[in-house]
Amino acid sequence: MKLDRIDIKILHELQKNGRITNVELADLVHLSPSPCLMRVKKLQSEGYIEGYSAQVNISKLGQTLTVFTEITLKNHRQVDFARFLAVVEKIDQVIECHLVSGGYDYLMKFVTAGIAEYQTIMERLTDMDIGIDKYFSFVVLKSPIVKTHMPLPSLFPR
Question: Where would I find the HTH asnC-type domain in this sequence (predicted)?
Fold first, then answer.
Protein backbone atom coordinates (compact mmCIF):
# COMPACT_ATOMS: atom_id res chain seq x y z
CA MET A 1 0.00 0.00 0.00
CA LYS A 2 1.43 3.36 -1.01
CA LEU A 3 0.45 6.14 1.37
CA ASP A 4 -0.53 9.58 0.16
CA ARG A 5 -0.67 12.91 1.97
CA ILE A 6 -4.20 12.22 3.25
CA ASP A 7 -3.19 8.85 4.73
CA ILE A 8 -0.28 10.54 6.52
CA LYS A 9 -2.64 13.22 7.85
CA ILE A 10 -5.07 10.54 9.07
CA LEU A 11 -2.25 8.76 10.92
CA HIS A 12 -1.02 12.05 12.33
CA GLU A 13 -4.45 12.99 13.68
CA LEU A 14 -5.14 9.50 15.07
CA GLN A 15 -1.87 9.41 16.98
CA LYS A 16 -2.75 12.75 18.57
CA ASN A 17 -6.29 11.61 19.44
CA GLY A 18 -7.19 7.96 18.99
CA ARG A 19 -10.72 8.61 20.27
CA ILE A 20 -11.60 11.14 17.60
CA THR A 21 -14.85 10.35 15.83
CA ASN A 22 -14.74 9.44 12.17
CA VAL A 23 -16.78 12.55 11.32
CA GLU A 24 -14.28 14.80 13.15
CA LEU A 25 -11.35 13.01 11.53
CA ALA A 26 -12.90 13.28 8.08
CA ASP A 27 -13.36 17.01 8.60
CA LEU A 28 -9.72 17.47 9.68
CA VAL A 29 -8.37 15.61 6.63
CA HIS A 30 -10.89 17.13 4.21
CA LEU A 31 -12.71 13.93 3.25
CA SER A 32 -16.28 12.83 3.60
CA PRO A 33 -16.85 10.34 6.44
CA SER A 34 -17.29 7.19 4.32
CA PRO A 35 -13.99 7.40 2.38
CA CYS A 36 -12.22 8.45 5.57
CA LEU A 37 -13.48 5.36 7.40
CA MET A 38 -12.44 3.15 4.48
CA ARG A 39 -8.93 4.61 4.63
CA VAL A 40 -8.69 4.08 8.40
CA LYS A 41 -9.79 0.45 8.03
CA LYS A 42 -7.24 -0.06 5.24
CA LEU A 43 -4.48 1.51 7.38
CA GLN A 44 -5.43 -0.88 10.18
CA SER A 45 -5.54 -3.97 7.97
CA GLU A 46 -2.17 -3.09 6.39
CA GLY A 47 -0.54 -2.75 9.84
CA TYR A 48 0.11 1.00 9.79
CA ILE A 49 -2.13 1.32 12.85
CA GLU A 50 -1.06 -1.25 15.43
CA GLY A 51 -3.62 -0.39 18.10
CA TYR A 52 -5.05 2.26 20.36
CA SER A 53 -4.19 3.02 23.97
CA ALA A 54 -4.80 5.51 26.76
CA GLN A 55 -2.13 8.01 27.78
CA VAL A 56 -2.03 7.75 31.54
CA ASN A 57 -0.92 10.71 33.66
CA ILE A 58 1.41 8.66 35.84
CA SER A 59 2.18 11.61 38.14
CA LYS A 60 -1.45 11.49 39.31
CA LEU A 61 -0.86 7.93 40.53
CA GLY A 62 2.18 8.75 42.64
CA GLN A 63 5.90 9.35 42.49
CA THR A 64 8.09 7.49 40.05
CA LEU A 65 11.70 7.63 38.99
CA THR A 66 12.79 7.79 35.36
CA VAL A 67 16.35 6.78 34.56
CA PHE A 68 18.17 6.72 31.25
CA THR A 69 20.92 4.11 31.27
CA GLU A 70 23.82 3.65 28.89
CA ILE A 71 24.89 0.02 28.73
CA THR A 72 28.05 -1.37 27.16
CA LEU A 73 28.38 -5.09 26.52
CA LYS A 74 31.63 -7.03 27.00
CA ASN A 75 31.37 -8.76 23.62
CA HIS A 76 29.63 -7.79 20.42
CA ARG A 77 28.64 -11.03 18.76
CA GLN A 78 25.05 -11.56 17.67
CA VAL A 79 24.59 -14.11 20.44
CA ASP A 80 25.70 -11.53 23.05
CA PHE A 81 23.11 -9.00 21.88
CA ALA A 82 20.41 -11.68 21.73
CA ARG A 83 21.18 -12.95 25.26
CA PHE A 84 21.04 -9.42 26.65
CA LEU A 85 17.77 -8.56 24.91
CA ALA A 86 16.11 -11.84 25.90
CA VAL A 87 16.49 -10.81 29.55
CA VAL A 88 15.75 -7.08 29.43
CA GLU A 89 12.63 -7.40 27.28
CA LYS A 90 11.00 -9.24 30.20
CA ILE A 91 11.58 -6.36 32.63
CA ASP A 92 8.39 -4.29 32.88
CA GLN A 93 10.28 -1.24 34.12
CA VAL A 94 12.24 -1.07 30.84
CA ILE A 95 10.10 1.32 28.82
CA GLU A 96 12.51 1.78 25.90
CA CYS A 97 15.66 0.06 24.69
CA HIS A 98 17.67 1.36 21.75
CA LEU A 99 20.75 -0.15 20.11
CA VAL A 100 22.87 2.91 19.33
CA SER A 101 26.12 3.85 17.67
CA GLY A 102 28.85 5.62 19.59
CA GLY A 103 30.53 4.98 22.90
CA TYR A 104 28.07 2.45 24.29
CA ASP A 105 25.70 -0.20 22.94
CA TYR A 106 22.25 0.41 24.39
CA LEU A 107 20.35 3.42 25.65
CA MET A 108 17.54 2.29 27.92
CA LYS A 109 14.74 4.11 29.67
CA PHE A 110 13.55 2.76 33.01
CA VAL A 111 10.52 3.93 34.97
CA THR A 112 10.56 2.59 38.52
CA ALA A 113 8.93 3.23 41.86
CA GLY A 114 12.17 4.77 43.13
CA ILE A 115 15.93 4.56 43.27
CA ALA A 116 15.90 1.38 45.38
CA GLU A 117 13.89 -0.50 42.76
CA TYR A 118 16.16 0.74 39.95
CA GLN A 119 19.25 -0.28 41.93
CA THR A 120 17.80 -3.74 42.57
CA ILE A 121 17.09 -4.23 38.87
CA MET A 122 20.59 -3.15 37.85
CA GLU A 123 22.25 -5.33 40.51
CA ARG A 124 20.21 -8.30 39.31
CA LEU A 125 21.18 -7.62 35.69
CA THR A 126 24.88 -7.35 36.46
CA ASP A 127 24.75 -10.50 38.62
CA MET A 128 23.05 -12.50 35.85
CA ASP A 129 26.14 -12.52 33.66
CA ILE A 130 24.28 -11.44 30.52
CA GLY A 131 27.32 -9.66 29.13
CA ILE A 132 27.14 -6.20 30.72
CA ASP A 133 30.59 -4.61 30.86
CA LYS A 134 29.56 -1.26 32.34
CA TYR A 135 26.61 1.05 32.67
CA PHE A 136 25.99 4.69 33.42
CA SER A 137 22.76 5.98 34.93
CA PHE A 138 21.16 9.37 34.38
CA VAL A 139 18.27 10.19 36.71
CA VAL A 140 15.64 12.44 35.16
CA LEU A 141 14.93 15.47 37.33
CA LYS A 142 12.27 17.01 35.10
CA SER A 143 10.80 16.37 31.65
CA PRO A 144 9.72 19.75 30.28
CA ILE A 145 8.97 18.32 26.81
CA VAL A 146 7.47 14.88 26.22
CA LYS A 147 5.58 14.28 23.01
CA THR A 148 3.46 11.23 22.38
CA HIS A 149 3.23 11.66 18.63
CA MET A 150 5.66 11.85 15.75
CA PRO A 151 5.67 14.78 13.27
CA LEU A 152 4.46 12.56 10.42
CA PRO A 153 3.62 15.29 7.87
CA SER A 154 7.14 16.71 8.05
CA LEU A 155 8.80 13.28 8.19
CA PHE A 156 6.85 11.92 5.23
CA PRO A 157 5.75 14.80 2.99
CA ARG A 158 3.77 13.48 0.03
Answer: 3-64
